[in-house]
Amino acid sequence: MTMTNAPTTHLDRSMRNADYVLVDDVVCATSYVRVPDEHTVADDIVLEVTDGDTELDFIRADFDGAQSLGDDAWRLADGRLLRFLTSATLH
Question: Which of 28, 37, 38, 78 is deepest in the core (most CB within 10 A)?
């Protein structure tokens, strides 16, 4: 079963290598990312993020109907805003 209404290739690019995720206005560290693919079912966890002692889990179905807002930001169907962030390395 594949994701519906969310452009998987764009979500793939947004999720891949994300070190942090801005969930609404809270920056969370990425604990686990599984980029949805053709083997991912609706209740599979695809994203785990933490903020201190708080852990948030997102299942594949959370991304059904998600809208890309550009700059690796996504508006989920339930209204939450996620922005995938990658830390920069300075030499």
Answer: 28
* Strands of the sheet with 45-51, listed across from one edge: 54-59, 45-51, 26-33, 20-23, 81-85, 73-75, 67-70
**Residue 62 main-chain phi, psi, to 5 deg:** -60, -25
What's the predicted TM-score (pTM) here? Answer: 0.82
What per-residue string of b and e applies to 49-87 under the rule 16 or more CB within 10 Å gives b? beeeeeebebbbbbbeebeeeeebebebeeeeebbbbee
| Token pair recorded at residue 12 | 């793939």
The DSSP result for 31-68, as a single string, is EEE----TT--TTSEEEEEEETTEEEEEEGGGGTT-EE
